[in-house]
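Entry for the shared binder. Reason: the reviewer on the internal report wants the predicted structure included alongside the sequence.
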Amino acid sequence: MTQKIYTTVCLAGIIMLCSFTPAMHKYYLSLSEVAINTEKHTLDVSCKIFIDDLEVELNKLSQKKIDLSAAGKNKETETILFTYLEKNFKINVGGKLQSLQYVGYEIEGDAVWCYMEVAKFKGKGTISILNTLLYYSFP
């Protein structure tokens, strides 16, 4: 009887201890928004990605240490960022791959908002999106 109570208390303690520790799996996510701008005839793309996760991807792509939150924007960093975005965010309209134009990025807390657009958007045809941001480092 004493052994059974001891085992039950130990098991309950282990369960309680595990419930107070951080989760073993970290979540990796990005938020992407595509909006039709009828005034400018563009397709506006906004992607919100956690800075540390995005920097992991950019470091792999460039083989350099990328720091998006460093003071002052660096042209080389922006080129690397757009290359990554262009490679991992594809928009097809009516079955035709659209060319993305880089607009810029801004830091918001621990995330970065990246902005792109499709110019001369006519709004005809089905829009399909392939988003593989963060996919290769965090499948």
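Summary line for the report: Residues 2-20 form the longest helix (19 residues).
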